DNA sequence: ACAAAAGTGTTCACACTACACCCATGG
DNA sequence: CCATGGGTGTAGTGTGAACACTTTTGT
């Protein structure tokens, strides 16, 4: 009996914990950064605002668990995702001892399936007007935002917010929403175009202005050359 | 029975996991950055190189667990520590399903109790000459180093490597060990002194040179004024 | 014709880089 | 007296910030 335990499990003496995966899902809408929140469907704290989450299963890793949560609530695949951290202080969840590992994700909000919102009682909430969230979820969002800002300044992840093409005015609006700072139009465009990592399309977006703004696309190959030449992305 | 479960534990259906806390303990010695490693005392992979770690108990949080590990292996208190991340892919630990949460720590290696080394079969290993470590511990060290570099460039944590006082040549050696880059002596000293966050002592360190180098101390009050004036630490 | 957003260059200040010589001391 | 590491200043270059007007087009 003991021998069997030793073969299947070397650490059988130690305590075990529930592991939750909570996702800070960012999207860009109405010139503002939003995150997807839900009304918690279960006790304790049922009905209060909460991040999207779930428990990790035996037969999956942390990444898989996070991807599962993301797919469940967005039906999008290949979502950009990054771990924020682990939250495991005593009593952070009054329901039980739970260690939560958080990921932030960037989703393309242009073609979001609105029927999902009803199904899960989910809403896109402006990050500038966040309500009180359960447990330590507000702290998680703060940490995620800080990490997002750092990553977006040093890696080309800002393009993950768009389905494919985007205009420079929209890109700048997004930048300003992420950093909660106004940016100078000319300096912003200069910085972007100086990296030479975008392709300008013929097509214009005529929806948000009369003149229309040209669409651009992030060009992964150009970005690679850019890196090979010893440069580093910076926004 | 069911009712009782619901009161004490709302999530009783979900899987539970062992949670390990592994620490990347950094120290500065012989002009090089070192980390504290040990020969793993238990199966599986007994005898191989490993980070310092332990399992989290029921009645402690992640932070407490990490502090416990640090105190156990260094006997130092108030160690600077920061979470690196959670590692929880399937099969990362062949012994059992374990999710590991890692912290890096900066310890004062000047007055390190060498008897501890024997007690725990621990050694300070140069980060430039790391052996293969068990499981995903090499990846953990890489991630910790990256985070350390980022933090040390934007916050005054580099001083945590010293007991109290330090010389500018030693500080520069440490900086070079962290970033694995040579630094210009005059530019380095200019940057440090331009922040005006150090106190120069009368005393000199006469051990590492004939002329002797003045000791300096990090002045927390000066640093606060520095921040209040709208500046940001940068090295 | 006018309102509303797109697009475009130049100047200035500051920060970062490169660089070489004298000083103090112990042996 | 000399070898070893400690300590100091300046000039040039590149990067980030400030700043205003013209263009296009739908109504």
Which fold name fills CATH's third level, the topology of the largest domain in chain A?
Nucleoside Triphosphate Pyrophosphohydrolase
Uncertain stretches of 5 or more adjacent residues of chain A: 1-7
The CATH architecture category of the largest domain in chain A equals Alpha-Beta Complex
CATH class of the largest domain in chain A: Alpha Beta
Q: Can you count the beta strands of chain A?
A: 10
What are the secondary-structure elements of chain A, in order, as H or E?
A: HEEEEHEEHEHEHHEEH
Please state the structural category of chain A. Answer: alpha+beta
Tally of discrete structural domains of chain A: 2
**Beta-sheet strand percentage of chain A?**
25-35%
Biggest interface, and residues per chain? A-B, 39 and 39 residues
Number of helices of chain A: 7
**Quaternary organisation:** homodimer
The shape of chain A, in one word, is globular
Share of residues in helices of chain A? 25-40%
The named CATH superfamily of the largest domain in chain A: Nucleoside Triphosphate Pyrophosphohydrolase
- Cα Rg of chain A: 21 Å
């Amino acid at each position: 009996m003991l021998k069997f335990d030793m073969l299947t499990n070397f650490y059988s003496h130690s305590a075990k914990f529930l592991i939750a995966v909570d996702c800070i899902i960012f999207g860009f809408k109405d010139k503002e950064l939003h995150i997807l929140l839900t009304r918690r469907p279960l006790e304790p704290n049922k009905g209060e605002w909460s991040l999207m989450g779930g428990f990790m299963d035996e037969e999956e890793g942390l990444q898989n668990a996070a991807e599962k949560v993301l797919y469940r609530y967005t039906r999008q695949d290949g979502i950009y995702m990054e771990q924020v951290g682990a939250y495991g202080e005593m009593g952070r969840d009054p329901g039980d001892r739970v260690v939560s590992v958080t990921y932030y994700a960037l989703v393309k909000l242009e073609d979001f399936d609105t029927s999902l919102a009803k199904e899960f009682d989910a809403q896109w909430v402006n990050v500038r007007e966040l309500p009180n969230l359960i447990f330590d979820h507000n702290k998680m969002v703060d940490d995620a935002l800080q990490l997002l800002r750092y990553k977006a300044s040093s890696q080309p992840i800002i393009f993950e917010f768009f389905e494919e093409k985007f205009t420079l005015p929209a890109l700048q609006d997004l930048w300003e929403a992420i950093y909660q700072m106004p940016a100078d139009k000319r300096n912003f465009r200069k910085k972007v175009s100086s990296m030479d990592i975008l392709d300008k399309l013929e097509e214009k977006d005529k929806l948000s202005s009369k003149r229309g703004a040209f669409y651009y696309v992030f060009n992964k190959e150009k970005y690679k050359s850019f890196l090979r030449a010893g440069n580093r992305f910076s926004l």
